[in-house]
Amino acid sequence: MDANCISWTRKPRRGRSSCRIVISDDEVASSEANTSTRFSKGSPPSGFPKTNLENSLVALEADRLEHKRYVSLVQSLGNDQPGYSPSALSILHNEKIAPNEPPVVTWKFLDDSWTPNPPKPKEAETEAVEKELLPATSNSSVTITISDPSVEILSPERSDEHKPGLNSILAKRISQCPYCKDDFINKIKSKSERLRRRIEYFEDVALQKAKDAQAARMVYEESLFRGNLLYSKTRETYVPRSELPQLTAEQDSLFRKLISGPDSEVLVTKFHLDIKRSDIHTLLGSNWLNDEVINFYMNLIAERSQQRMTLLPKVYAMSTFFLPRLLDKGYDGMSRWTRNVDLFSKDIILVPVHVNKVHWGMAIVHMRDRSIRYYDSLGHCNDLVLVALVEYMQKESLDKRRRCFHHSGFLIENVPVSRIPQQTNGSDCGVFSCMYAEYIARDKPITFSQKNMNYFRQKMVLEICAGQLWS
Question: Which regions of the chain are under pLDDT 50?
């Protein structure tokens, strides 16, 4: 190689081969002579020499500027970060930067500059628009709002008018919020009123259905009572033999005080039972007694026998839920019901019977008198209950005493209406059943009748709230 030549090797790019450029001293001298000439602004003179070195530098610069413009465009449009801002018309015309298009290179020779590639008319128009929108003395930027399919270009003076601020966003949300509207309270009141009327309507419907059901049950019991009354008129020989004492003024005042007040108030707690005023109200007028009242009263009878063990028979009272479970589950489901009680050591076992959940009766097992009897104030027979109690006593004896229960000597009967008082309405069956148990548990003859039911209702209220029987 000639010693007066300059050798330059270009660093190879990925996927390309290396290039070696050799420039002679004559070409360098000719280039220096040309560059020393002062050119005016405009197009370059014809025949301007371009060497291989210059062409390589131009290619490198084009790649670098292309990459820089691409990164700046992505940052400005995607991440909203400061960087290269594309021209408005380039976005408007949806122009893309051609990857192989060389950038516009400005050659500076002394104080003058000229562009080898003059801008196209469209690019000149773009530059004019950019100069108009972005003055050199202003630091303002152009806000470009792009929406599909149209593009809106806003000037710096108009950008603040169209760009929503925090206050405007909050104001819009508040205006659209239903809770902040002027008629919100009125709408809530009207909705609450409609809901209240709907609830009242359903309450009235439920109350009417309850009244209709109660009336139907009363008609059913009245029909049973009339049939039983016609049958027993020729056979009834029972006559009450004594009168009951009247309530004192103090007892009557206490009774009125107990029945007045909120229904949910607990008046007495005993035997693991809470008696509320609503339970006491079942003893008023012609209401039907509920399970809580009858279970509490049966426990009072059993407690009295323990307190007066030398004077009264030993009494054990079953719950109102005993017999339904026995009929449903059998003895296997009831074996642990009396695990701590020896029934065969008792004289009397009281078993309340709720017939079809509309009528109360009383079954009593007399261990001392060797009898199992069913007492009903309407004169109905209940052989199913008697048979279930006999089988229960047999299995209980085998389980607890390991011996058979011989019931051959027991009298098993439905007590006839000629020996016990009968009700003359459809609501006092629960009171009759409790009084059957109370009289028999203290070995007293049954001497009451229908006319004593109001007295017994008041007496039971006072006894339950006091937690103790009077006699």
Answer: 1-3, 6, 8, 17-18, 28-29, 31-48, 79-94, 96-116, 119, 121-122, 126, 129-130, 133-160, 229-240
Distance, in Å, from the CA atom of 240 to the CA atom of 234, rounded to the nearest integer, reads: 17
pLDDT at 428: 93
Distance CA 158, CA 142 (A): 10
Helix (H/G/I), strand (E/B), else coil: 320? coil
* Residue 166 burial (C-beta neighbours within 10 Å; 0-12, 13-18, 19+): exposed
Q: How far apart are CA 288 and CA 283, in angstroms?
A: 7
> Could you tell me the maximum CA-CA distance found in the chain, to the nearest angstrom?
157
Q: What does DSSP say about strands 348-355 and 315-317: parallel, antiparallel, or unpaired?
A: parallel
pLDDT at position 52 is 67
Dist CA 434 CA 451 (whole Å): 16
Alpha-carbon distance of 397 to 385, in angstroms, equals 18
pLDDT at position 407 = 73
The pLDDT, as a whole number, for residue 60 is 79
Interior CA angle at 247 toward 242 and 252, to 5°?
160
Q: Which residue from 350, 307, 328 is spatially nearest to 440, judged by alpha carbons?
A: 350
Tokens standing for residue 151: 């593009």
Residue 119 identity: P
- Given this model, what pLDDT does residue 127 score? 54
Give CA–CA dist 406/371, Å, rounded: 12
446-453 LR contacts (CB < 8 Å, sep 24+): 446/419, 446/420, 446/421, 447/240, 447/241, 447/242, 448/240, 448/244, 448/421, 449/240, 449/421, 450/421, 450/422, 450/423, 450/424, 450/425, 452/244, 453/423, 453/428
Tell me which residue of 446, 347, 330 sits closest to 394, measured CA to CA: 330
- Would the pTM count as exceeding 0.70? no
* Bridge partners (DSSP) listed for residue 255: none
- Tokens at 216, concatenated: 């139907």
